[in-house]
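Cont'd.
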Amino acid sequence: MQVVEDSESAFIKKMKNTIYILILFICQITFATDELARQYEYADKLFNKENYFEAITEFKRLSFFDEKNVYAYESNYKIGIAYKYGGFYDNAIQYLSHSIRETENFEKKIQSQFQIIRCNILRKTTDRALQLLNQLEEDSKYENYKNEIYYWKGWSFMISDRWDSASQSFANISEDHELKILSEQIYNEKYSVTFARVISYILPGAGQFYTGNYLSGFMSIAWNVLWGYLTINSFIENRAFDGVVIGSLLWLRFYSGNIQNAEKLAVQKNIETANTALLYLMENYRGEKP
Amino acid sequence: MILTIVNQAQDNVFLSIENRLRFGDFLFCDNDYLRAIDEYKIVLKNKESDMLKFKIALAYQELKKYNESENSFKELFSSQQFANEAKFEYFRTLYLSDNFEMMDKLIKDDSFIDASTSKEIKKLYNLKHLYSQFHIEDSSDFFDPFNDKESVELLKYFIRKQNIENKSPAFAAVLSAVVPGLGKVYTENYGDGITAFLLTGVLTFLAIDNFNAEHDFRGWLFTGLAAYFYSGNIYGSATSAQLFNAGARITFDNDLQLFLNKNNHFIPNNNLFCK
């Protein structure tokens, strides 16, 4: 009888110990998970408050202690976005690429991919952005994302000053897309540099008139008429040497200067037009920006 | 025990001193020096550590914050564990921040240089003298701290430094005084030289021709213009020689900088803290 009681109490003791250990184990796991969740919450709060430097630190801390990679996608994605807002596009792309590797979820992968493309647009590596967009466009998996692909393609073209291509890309989304109309307008407003140069060959000053620089155009035509007249007059009066000197040193100089000037003015006007459009987009456009 | 865990959870275990140190080390090796410094500084408030101070100084050096780096290394000159490393890294910081004056002072100070790092310090000191603005007094001493392979690589730049083309501004001016444009040709500005020669020649001819034809006003006008171009060309030739010399020195220094960066300034990369 005594033996049975002893073995029973030993069994109860053993059970108690097992239960304690189990409770401890559960507590440990719960608190660790809890701790990660709390860290994520804290980092996210900093991120939402736009305190990006601190947010990156805390997300990196989360990543470091998150041994099971529970928050791997979220931390890497948000570190990438925080770097993007801070203007560190190389770092942003690095972490966004990590985030793609950390998830199997297609939607999340796409979200990161588009962010990488937007970072490329912002850091003006638009060729890379277009290359990535073309890859997505060719892939049938992204069939439902065509509009988004066209949209960011349009932005890449706008940033790389290819307004006609931008207009075509936005037109693929909708014929009356706000950015399609704007790109078309900018493309039409821009001057043809070749045309400005060619008409200046034919009539000095014409290129300047074409770009709206009337005073410059008038001065150009006046100087060319003056030196042209003096050159021809010298030859008519048999002063061949004067004719050659005035013609080569002055008339030719003003004639070639007029062509260069017309070209320069057209380029300058185009840059002004593009900059005004980009400034307008930055300040007034309500749609999604890179 | 349960209470301890509960307390730990409430305190945020990730922010414990031990975990901050681990996280700081991770950031340091991940080249995120700014954040590593922040973590180390918090740890240092609770725990004295020369190693952390040394790592902070290294992090500042990596961030090119040379003043902070120098000050942090200086604090470790009396450290038992890191005195020699700190002195060497301090010297390296001076080298990276182009503080030649201080480097000169320290290289003569025997109490500063320890036998274990003297070779590396001399390497950095000699490499600094390879830049065009310095003169190497004793060429036989220059290669002493370097091994044979390093010496062979450096020899190319050593010879190039001795032969950096130097055009004399005075000689260029004299050449242009004798033959307009010749000074420019001497400084390898061939187009400018030919233009200056033709322009001065044509203007001089026009002046003489007009005087001969008794067009005195035109004669004096072209004489003035010819004199203007002639003197301008002499001045321009002297300037062109100076620009040529500056260009040659800048090209050499840039090439040397790239070469030294590529070879880590011939200092072995002993990564003490990151594997």
